[in-house]
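Task: complex structure prediction.
Instruction: return structure tokens for all chains below.
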Amino acid sequence: MQVPAPFEYERATSVDHALALLERHGPEARVIAGGHSLLPMMKLRLARPEMLIDINDLSDLDYIKIDSGEIAVGAMTRHVSILDSALLAEHYSIFREAEKVIADPIVRNRGTIGGSFCQADPSEDLSAVGAALRATMVIRSSSGTRTVAARDFHDGPYQTLVGPAEMLVEIRFPIRPGSGSAYEKVERRAGDWAIAAAGTFVRLDGDTVADCGIGLTAVGVEHFACGAAEDFLRGKQATADNIAAAGQICHDAADPQADQRGPVDYKRHLARELVTRALTRSAARARGEKV
Amino acid sequence: MTVTEEAPLSPAGNPMGFGRMIRKEDARFLRGQGNYVDDVNLPGMLHGAILRSPYAHARIVSIDTSAAEAHPKVKAVITGKILETLKLAWMPTLSYDVQSVLCTDKVRFQGQEVAFVVAEDRYSARDALELIEVEYEPLPTVFDARHALDADAPIIRDDLDGRTDNKIYDWEAGDKAKCDEVFANAEVVVKQSMIYPRVHPAPLETCGSVASMDKVTGQLTVWTTTQAPHAHRTLYALVAGLPEHKIRIISPDIGGGFGNKVGIYPGYVCAVVGSILTGKPVKWMEDRSENLMSTSFARDYHMTGEIAATKDGKMLGLRVDVLADHGAFNGVAQPTKYPAGFFHLFTGSYDYPVAHCNVRAVYTNKAPGGVAYACSFRITEAAFLVERMVDCLAFELKMDPAELRMKNLLRPEQFPYTTPTGWEYDSGDYPRALKEAMRIAGYDELRREQAEKRAAGETMGIGISFFTEGVGAGPRKHMDILGLGMADGCELRIHPTGKAQLRISVQSQGQGHETTFAQIVSHELGIPPEDIEVIHGDTDNTPFGLGTYGSRSTPVSGAAAAVVARRIKDKAKIIAAAALECSVDDLEWEHGRWFVKGDHDKGQTIQESAFAAHGTLELPEGVEGHLDASVVYDPPNLTYPFGAYIAVVDVDMGTGHVKVRRFIAVDDCGPRINPMIVEGQVHGGLADGVGMALMEVMAFDENGNHLGGSFMDYLLPTSMECPSWELGETVTPSPHHPIGAKGVGESATVGSPAAIVNAVLDALQIRHAEMPLTPAVVWRAIQGNPLDRPDLAIE
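Output:
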């Protein structure tokens, strides 16, 4: 049995209570939701928070709803709810495709969307989804609420803009009629972190790409997105050649680390291959094809 | 009753002999009522934790334990210096080497044991480890076996007198001169190097023990995760100098072993010392990282094979050169005579007139071990080698691999068959098994589908492997471990009411012995299996024997159970004759009952004989009462199960991702005592094969850092990677085993990796690529730029 270093524990009864606890205990306190990233790190003593603030009772942060023309997802929404959500599936295929390949059912039953973003693992799948869809992150503190673009939210590996006395409470996704989206991931084994993964959406005007989003994870692109490839594709025809060229831009933008999941050339290849596949399927879906 | 007849059902609906029945063990396992070592909690019990080396090779300059000793809940801090005063700083390995218990001079692998803390609870013990100050002086490392013998390689074992290099042994088998002559004149020679990477058995339950020394009686009781409780008892006596009659080893429920739980680990010894020093029971359970980083690994065999053949594919000879990485201490567990285990069974299932192998073993700065993970004493490596080599030959000759195998498989009339390296295979019908696998697979149809897919730009592969195992070690005159012969005892007591207790020496780690051994006795005596209690795992209550590994339980101990039951049957005959007032010669046996020939109604059931044996019935001169028997079974030979496996894979050429679409496994392990348990074991072994072929590897970086210290980094397959297994069987009984059974526990692990690797390479139309075939390795192979060392850190 792996045992963590000593820590204190308190269960928050409301968001305000959680924020008050964060203020009181300072930067050595950590919020715990599903715990499937934090607890393993604590057991390996790679993370040693002195105080855990358990927010699992904050069911008012567990929702998926339409709000002011956007899809609002509460930070305590579990992966399994995202996977099963008809509302999300109606607007974006990317959620179900990404969630299906995130860890395993046990993790998905506990892990939360807020936890995934805040853990800020450079291989996190939902970070690529948030970047692709240009989500907005809603952060609360005792002094009020502020919003940050998903593409500004991460401040490097395992780092976010959420301050020591703040909490991520909601993630908002724009609704884009006429768009299609998709997620592509390669892993060594079900439940492993991605070797590389790509999430995209394409909104078509006729056969012209009116808008698109390209998110990538585990390949070392800044903020999990490839804006250069999006800029290239926007306004062009959604042809195989143009999509492949966008994939190539992602290949060139990728700056991955070699590890047991693969060497650099392979991961950069995957950035190209997976973006190309995801864009192709997104465009087909935008055309109304069942793929 | 012959083995092929269906057994009648018992009152509880179980087969009175062989057949499918729910495992007796399941009642407690499914309710969460198993009793594992970590479930053992004794009054006043303390907890141990081990401080391990962060370096792969470093001299210890100093150890300061004062802060840890000052921790309010710490009861003792043990270092190598303290163990030296007890002459326990080093212990013998199972291969006549020594291994450090707690380091006294230098650490030789990352994760090596440096100090042991005993505290009131396991949290405090773990916290106190961080209070121990160790000053290390890092030394150059050797972690790549191929550089272990370089002139400038650091000497790892400078503790051994006169060591000037890292060589452990050179060992050969077969006739080199004859082999070389065949190769010199052969039309075709195909040579291929391959690595069977370092992998880990990774049992669900990690290793640990609870040691309790009673200072008044001098009795040492150790509850421990061992596959071989009796061997452990003798080893504790030899290692610690404790009197063997005062040592009791209890191996309760064991959560998987796979060879990981054969040897004695430093933590076990530390728990014993901790109990001696504190006067309290001490529990030590390693965590997952400790298990992966420091306990018995498997493989790490660097093999170069060469096959000589005619142009039309008749195999003429096989020679192999192996570099074996044994880690920092030679701690392999295998019969003494065979330093490379049974690797020299590498000619496998084929009719090779000549063969030769040389195995050179070296020390490296990695954890010790080597014989584990269902390897049948290195037959896993041997089977992989020969099955890869056969496919390499098929590749070069552009022959269908099934056709090439069929042409060279041993023929039924060649049995008993003596291999060029001296093994005598007991029985086999290999072509029948391969044909059956091809029939189930629809082999020709698969090849047609493959051709169509290739034409359409899709990629699928079909891979075959045919393996022969040698299990059930073994004959006493040839096989021992540390001088202990590999025979197994067995005792059977029939109580007055006809219920039975069978005491066996082997140790289940999930194999279902409590069920299958009861079925063996039921088969012999006609006592319902539910009326037979199988007792194991406690040295005070079971006869001596060497334990469960190398698929030896059924071949050795299962034979003992059949033989002891037959002794009971013979004695019951004398009792029945006395009771029926007839001559023993007038009696005839039917399942569960002796009766008078020609008068079927006049007879005595085994239960009635049992009561009579314990009663007042007058017995013939010299016949004692009661109905008990014991036996020690010395197997006359190994048994040789075999099988034909076919894997079908789809490869995504854009990502290198492999999907195992189908897997057909035809196993011949002789008669199946409980087909359900056999199938379960085969399923598990096939999953192991998927793991080894596609994802499992313990990799190291250039400093000897272990890159697989958790299940986030050391990958085991899940159900998502496994197809729905398609099993078949043929039955070729062993002629020398009392019930013809051959053992099957490791068959699928031995046979399956080659089938999957062969299938992937068949898909790619490439001759060779190294395991594990992760997407990156496959993609690089497709690019013609192979990652040739997936066992090292990927740059």
